[in-house]
Amino acid sequence: MAEVVGDGSLDHKGNPAIRSATGGWKRAVLVFGPELCERMTTLGVATNLVTYLTNDLHLSNTKAPNIVTNFLGTSFMLCLLGGFIADTYIGRFWTVAIAATIQFLGMLVLTILTSLPSLRPPHCVHDCPPAKAKQLSLLYLALYLSALGTGGIKSNVSAFGADQFDKNEPKEQKLMSYFFNWFFVSISVGALFSLTVLVYIQDNVGRGWGYGICAAAMLLAIVIFLAGTRMYRYKAPSGSPLTRIAKVVVAAVRKHKLELPRDQSSLYGSLGPGKDAEDPASDQSARHTNQFRHLYQYRFLDKAAVLEPSDDEIYDENPKPWRLCTVTQIEEVKMVLRLLPIWATTITFYTVYAQMLTFSVVQGSKMDRKMGSFLFPSASSAAFLFATIMVTVTVYDRFIVPLMRKLTGHPQGITTLQRIGVGLVVAILAMVVAAMVERRRVRIARENKLLDSPDVPVPMSVLWILPQYVLVGIGEAFTYIGQLEFFYRESPDGMQSLGVGLFLSTISLGFFLSSFLVSVVDSVTRGGGSGGWIANNLNRSRLDDFYWLLAVVSSANLVLYLICARWYKYRRAVSHSTGTSAHF
C-alpha cells in the first residue's frame, strides 16, 4: 500500500498525497522557476531604473532613487496581500500562477513603453524638461503591475516549495533546510543574469530588448511551473489568519472584566499542565505558555479562553468563535506577536541594501568605468553582490555549518537568529566602507577640479565601490536566508504564507525607510545656497555623511535586535517551556 504523506498534504485532486508520487526535490526544483524569473525581472528593472529615470526621463537625483525604492517597497509590501489571499482563499499554487501572469503583463507594458521614443522626452544634454505626467503614468502602470506580481510570487513560492517536504519525516525535514539555501542560490542566479547580461543589453542594445527578455523568461517559467501541477503537494487554505487573530482579540476584549484562573487547566481547550490543547479547527496543537506573564496586554489574551457560566452549554460543542477561543487559538496569536520584535529590528538591513540599487549605482556612474575597450555598466556592480551571495551560501553550507555543528551541537550549526545577527553586523561595515570610498571619490574630484563637472568621470576606478557590494552580499546571505527560515518555521501552522509575507514586509519597510530618510535629509540639509547632502551634482553632495548616518542608525538597531533575539524563545522551546529562558 502506498505511503501517505504524514503532514496532511493533498494531491492535485484533493486526496491525501502519496509520498512516492508527489513532492520531494524533483517537484521542488520546478518551483525555482517563477522566483528565479521574478528576481531577474525585478532587479532587471530596479537596478538600472535610476539611470533611466535620470538620463532618459530627466528626473532629479532625489526623485529618481525614491521612485525606485517606492517601487521595491510596494513590491514587498504587497507580499502581505499575497500571503493573505493564499492562506484564505485560493492556496499558494494558484496565487503564484496568477501573480506570475500579472508580472508578465507588467513587463510587457514596460517593454512597449521603453521601445517607443514617443513615450519618453526627447534626448537633450542640459536643462532637460522632465517626463510628462502621461509618460510617467504609463511607467507607474508597468512598475506596479510588476509589483503586484512580485507580491503574490515572493510570499508564496518559497512556502510552496517547502510544502513539498514532510516536516514530520526526519529525512525530508533535513532536506527542507537545504531547500531554503539552494532556493536562495537559484534566486541569485536570476539576479546575477539580470545584473550582467540584461544590464549590458539595456545599456548597449536597448531597454526594450532587456525588458522583453524578462517578459519571455517569465512566460517560460509559468509554463514550467504549471507542468508540475499533478506532482505537487498542496496545503488547503486554512482560512484567513487575520480573522483567526481577530477572533482571539475580540473574545478577550469581551471578557476583559473576568479574572484569569489560577489553574490554567480550566481554560477552554486545555487538557492540563504539560498536555496539549486540542483545537479541531486547527492543524496544530499548542500548550499554554507563560512567556508573557509579566506583560498584562499578553496575559490579557488568555481571557478569550476563560469559561463563563453562560459558556457551559457550549463547552462540549463548538463554541461561538467570537466569544470563546481555545488555548491553541490563543497560542497562535502569541506566536505571531513573538515574531514582531524580530520583524521590527531587521528592517534597517534593507535600508542599507537599498543604497546598493540607488546611490551606489549613481556613485559608480561618476567614476572611471573603462576596462580596456570595455565600458563597465555601473548597474552591473550589483552583480558582485549576488556572486558574493552564491559563494557565501556555498561556503556556509559546505564548511561553516559542519564546523559549527561540531562546536555548538546545533543541527543547523548556528541558530537562525544568530545568522540574522551576523548579517546585521556586516551591513554596518558596508556603510562604513561606502562612506570612506565616497569621501575619497569627492577628494579626487576636488584635486582634479571636477567639482562643477559632474558629467566627467572622476579618475578613480569603479572597482573601489565593489567592497561595499561584497559586504552587503555577505550580509544578505546570512540575513535573508535566516529570516526566510525563521519566519516560515516560527509561524503557526496554516499561517506560513502570512509569516513569509511578514518577513518580506521588512524588505518593503527598509526601502520605504530609505525613501523617508532621503527626503528628510534632503529637506534638512538643503538651504543657504547649499545643495545639501544629496544634490543633483554628486561631486558637491555629502553622500558620505548620509552613509555614516545609516551606519549609526544600523548600529543602534543592532543593539535592539540583540536584546530582542536574546529574549525570543523558539517555537519548539516555547511549547515545552514555562517561559524562563531565551534561545538566541
From TrEMBL:
SUPFAM superfamilies noted in UniProt: MFS general substrate transporter
MF terms (GO), sorted A to Z: transmembrane transporter activity
Key words of the record: Membrane, Transmembrane, Transmembrane helix
Membrane topology: Multi-pass membrane protein
UniProt key word Transmembrane: yes
Disordered as annotated region, ranges: 264-284
Location(s) in or outside the cell: Membrane
Gene Ontology terms: biological process: oligopeptide transport; transmembrane transport
TM stretches of this protein: 67-86, 93-116, 136-157, 178-202, 208-228, 339-362, 374-396, 417-437, 457-478, 498-521, 546-568
CC annotations in GO: membrane
Stated family: Belongs to the major facilitator superfamily. Proton-dependent oligopeptide transporter (POT/PTR) (TC 2.A.17) family.
Designated name of the protein: Uncharacterized protein
Organism: Selaginella moellendorffii
